[in-house]
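User: Sequence in, structure out. Go.
Assistant: Echoing your sequence, followed by the structure tokens.
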Amino acid sequence: MHPQKRAMLWINVVGGIAVLGSYAYGLLAHPENGQALWGGVPKDLRSLYVAGMPDAALGYLASTYHLLLRVDPELARIGKLQFGIFNALYAAILIPSAFWMPLTWRMIGQPSTVLWVGIRAVLVLVGISALGMAVALWNLKPKAPRGSYWAATIGSVVFCLHTGVLDALIWPWLFPV
């Protein structure tokens, strides 16, 4: 396996475990208070989040599948950048994502401006990084195989919309500070 792909795999495995682990721990540690994570998001809008989560996850997985199994890192170019930019983007998505739930639980228990800024920074970084992933995939050369490429690109846009609009913009706007 190419070293860049091996790094991508490890970033996704370790980062994915960190994100999912932070969610599992957070929900298990606060079983009676899970609704507090929604903040002020109305029930009607929650259904959009819940319906969009699987689509966003599938989009992320389609992008990862394409990059890991269908792209040759030696040939891949994103403008003047090389394949390694995807590893930086995955890290910039996964590392802060692992901090969202612990910071939010802390904010619920002991609100502070510093925590709120940290939560907003986490969400904005993930949203910007997801946008970077979508832009990088759009500009990736070569674009073959076509089916996998388009699934990855469209999937990255769906992931970007979820993290950049729903998570980074709407949720904080509706969260009672």
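User: And one key feature?
Assistant: The mean pLDDT is 96.
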